[in-house]
Amino acid sequence: MATSPFAKSTTNPGQGTIHLTLLPPATPTYSILNYSYPLKLLPSTPHILSALETRPLDASSASTKITHVPLLFLLSYGGGLLPPDSLSITLTLDALTRLTITTQGFTKIFPSPQSTPLATATQTLQASLGHQSGLLIAPDPTQPFDNSRYVQKQVFEIADTASLGVLDWVSEGRSARGEKWGCRECKLRCEIWRVDGNVQSKKSLLLRDNILLASPEPQIIARRMDNLGLFGTLILVGPLFTALGNFFIKEFDLLPRIGGRDWDDRPPTISPTGNITTDEAGKVEEQRRVSQWRRERLKEEKADGVLWTAARVRGCVVVKFGAREVEGARQWLGAMWKEEGTVRRDFGEGGLMCVR
């Protein structure tokens, strides 16, 4: 038997490693990027940021500005996971780097084989974010099929000045085939730890978020979801996402409340009189535009059955949302992100791929 000329692989099946570093003056580069079947990590063309809107990476060096953000696709063979497939990813972002991770479509969770009905597909992400780094994880929804089992765990250890945005959403299944929350088990867990300086052993828990959908009878899950076809969580933390988090909190505070007046019957609140400056006129027009955008968004939320809430938790902004269909949630989230502008400005168009 011939001996292989290639070195024996030291990577376990489904294991991947990502290490992003910054080369002078501000060029993000993968110092490590490897993966093994059934995992695929495919880097795409970095998305260029607008020169007019780009913010300095380091306040102490205004000349150091990031010009583009790498885009990485997280994929698996066949477009999903077949129990007992297991993916394990280790991610490290060095200081001043930014990265966007997305997918090219739904992450399908196939049914457990009849021979092993308790087999479970798993996915684990262990991430470390350095000083003033930024990570946006914005995949398409997870789609668990009937009789499937899936467990996902994401653990983030972030520096004081790091920024993290995590979108995690799950759909009811293949609605075109009549599936409606027929999975046997779907567990999604996200932990965010604040690291004290360079001492990895000193860390404090900021947030632990759990989504648990499990029942021996699928009909029970469907009844609990109350006609929602999708449920999701958006977590925002760090300076890059401060404005976006504030935007969600503000818009949630402005939602019509039970017994309150609806936006549609509110009288115009902007009616300038007399002489005003050009700047004042511009502000008035912008307020009118935002008010009109808000009214239209609320109509779409009602039509698509979108429900959502937002709250601050230990320096994080947590947004929970649901909708009757995936497209309704996608349009709502896209409208919010595009109106506020942080994702496009600080992570490029790649950050918006999941809401197109």
Which class best fits the helix and strand makeup?
alpha/beta
Amino-to-carboxy terminus distance: 52 Å
> Which of globular, elongated, flat, extended, rod-shaped describes the shape?
globular
- Enumerate the spans where pLDDT stays under 50 for 5 or more consecutive residues: 59-63
How much helical structure, as a percent, in the residues? 10-25%
Order of helices and strands: EEEEEEEEEEEEEEEEEHEHHEEHH
Can you list the strand order of the major beta sheet? 3-6-9-12-15-18-20-19
The number of helical elements comes to: 5
Radius of gyration (CA) equals: 22 Å
Describe this structure in words.
This protein is an alpha/beta fold. The protein is built from five helices and 20 strands. It has helices at residues 218-225, 242-253, 278-304, 326-340, 342-347; strands at 15-23, 27-35, 39-48, 56-58, 61-65, 68-76, 80-81, 86-93, 98-102, 107-109, 121-129, 134-137, 142-144, 149-158, 163-171, 185-196, 199-214, 230-237, 307-313, 316-323. The strands form four sheets. It has an eight-stranded mixed beta sheet with strand order 3-6-9-12-15-18-20-19. Strands 2-1-8-11-14-16-17 form a seven-stranded mixed beta sheet, with no helix packed on it. Strands 7-10-13 form a three-stranded parallel beta sheet, with no helix packed on it. Helix 3 (278-304) packs antiparallel against helix 4. It is globular, with a radius of gyration of 22 Å. It starts with 14 loop residues before the first strand and ends in a 9-residue tail after the last helix. The relative contact order is 0.12. Mean pLDDT is 87; it is low at 59-63.
